[in-house]
Design goal:
Keywords: Carbohydrate metabolism, NADP. With 284 residues, this protein is of the alpha+beta class. It has a domain of 186 residues: Dihydrodipicolinate Reductase, domain 2, CATH 3.30.360. The protein contains 7 helices and 9 strands. A hairpin with a 3-residue loop joins β6 and β7. It is globular and about 60 Å long.
Length: 284
């Protein structure tokens, strides 16, 4: 009941989903990106699945079919993505050239702005980005809330108010956590506000080993639980989102922007976010 009333366009300003990979070995690049690219791999099977789970309406039960019914509705509601709202990147090799496994312009980085055209999320930008060989290994969803209307404390912030957005962060990597970033009064006699963080780190709270994601999926297979697996209509809905993008990339021969290993990725991703009124947050 704390967050459910806020879970809509009325209170949420934007949603950012980040899946970074720091793997840069030639073997990994050749195996996963030489022919398929990051769109067919990570975006289809990870990014869209997470968006569907995040944005779906409450299912009538926890039965796998009921959950997958709601996920399909989200995927079918995603607006066609304009190629102008897509940023592609390609990792350089040690010599500063395109990696020898990816000379076919297969992207190793993808960022895009997506919109879900339904009553709950209409107008809320979903900014996604995922890439290989970047400066950190991180997987999270970051929900930024609207500013307080008529904020009388605007001049009391120690930083730009646009940088002090209230946020809820659902993090999987590097450490499982739920973080709530709120604007708080700095202790003392003055009246100065700052962004503070309330955190639930699973490793500090629970003395248990968190299983690997694929361990969980294998257990679901043994138990006959299908709620995390894609149904055929869900698969088709996901491809209907990505196929037009892939077609335009192939038809127009869109060249990915080169970026260095250990970098933040293509600079155009930040221009894309600014275009949609979003500031990428690179960490708490």
């Amino acid at each position: 009941m704390v967050f459910e009333p806020l879970w809509s366009r009325k209170y949420i300003r934007n949603v950012q989903q980040v899946v970074f990979s720091e793997e840069t070995s030639a073997e990994t690049q050749g195996r996963y990106f030489g022919n398929y690219g990051i769109i067919r791999d990570i975006v289809h099977s990870h990014i869209l699945q997470t968006i569907a789970l995040f944005a779906m309406e409450p299912p009538v039960s926890l039965d796998g079919e009921d959950i997958r019914d709601e996920k399909v509705k989200v995927l079918r509601s995603i607006r066609k993505v304009d190629i102008e709202d897509v940023v592609l990147g390609q990792l350089k090799d040690a010599s500063g050239d395109v990696d020898r496994y990816t000379k076919s312009m297969t992207p190793t980085y993808f960022a895009a702005a997506m919109y879900i055209d339904n009553a709950r999320w209409d107008g809320v930008p979903f900014l996604i980005k995922t890439g290989m060989g970047l400066m950190e290994n991180r997987a999270e969803i970051r929900i930024q809330f609207h500013h307080v209307p008529g904020n009388i404390y605007r001049e009391r912030f120690g930083h730009d108010i646009d940088l002090d957005t209230n946020e809820l962060v659902l993090r999987d990597l590097p450490e499982e956590a739920i973080l709530l970033k709120v604007n708080n009064k700095v202790p003392g006699l003055g009246l100065q506000l700052d962004a503070s963080e309330l955190n639930l780190l699973y490793r500090d709270r629970y003395d248990v080993e968190v299983p690997d994601s694929y361990e969980h999926l294998l257990l679901d297979v043994l138990d006959g639980d299908s709620h995390l697996f894609m149904r055929s209509d869900e698969l088709a809905a996901a491809w209907s989102v990505l196929a037009p993008i892939l077609h335009e990339i192939d038809q127009k021969s869109v060249a990915p922007e080169l970026y260095d290993a250990g970098d933040k990725g293509p600079i155009n991703a930040y221009y894309l976010a600014a275009k949609h009124g979003v500031r990428w947050d690179d960490g708490c």
